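FW: tagging you since you asked about this chain on Friday. Here's the raw sequence from the shared folder, copied in full. Didn't touch anything.
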Amino acid sequence: MSDLANGVRQGETEAESFTAYRINKRSKKIWWFALPILVILTGALIWLVWFSPVFAVKDVQVVDSAGGILSTDQIAQAQAAANIPLNQPIARIDSGASAQAVANLPWVSSVEVRRGWPNEVVVALDLRIPLARVKGLGASQGVDAQGIVFDSLNLNGLPLIEASGEALVSAVEVVANLPKNLAQKVVRIRAESIDSIELDLKSGSIVRWGSADEPEFKAAVLDALLSRRAQIYDVSAPELPTTTDEKGPKKA
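HL: got it, structure written out here
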């Protein structure tokens, strides 16, 4: 009885081994057929994406990330800086290098170059925000909070800064820290040095601001002094402010 059971088990094992052998042999045959097809498909895909005209660049769009409208000149400058050739496969575009080149434009704050498959590249810009105007070659230019001067289309109502170099940066710092109620009264900021900043008010009065230090203290003192009419308000030493040619309190 034991020998019979062993014979059955042995027969079952041989049958299983033969079945496994047939499956393994069939799998090898399938693999030998599938491997060349897989290689061909992979090569075709690589050629399609990296070398063929199917996914080549047909258009380079330049847009304002905030949804604003860019001028024709700004679009042309950004496209030239990005230097993305048409008809080149989109996968081979060096988006990092293009983004860095566009970011070097003075009026651009930040930029992202995106692939718009299958045939478009989008250059999305963040524009610098001008805090004031400066005298440029011909028309005025804008200057942002970092003291960077650039061409801008939206300068209406901004005060004019007459300064350069470190004095310009200090003057911009003063403008950036002025509370809104005082900023609206300023038409011009003059600075021959970082310690001799002066503000011209719409009323015709002058504010001797001094350096860009203690902006909140100086603004609070000036706000109190403006309740009186004077030709000159001096808050360069805010703990000891003075006025010149004072004409008494303003009429209610």
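FW: The helical segments are 2-50, 72-82, 95-103, 165-177, 180-183, 215-225.
HL: agreed, and The radius of gyration is 36 Å.
FW: great, closing this out.
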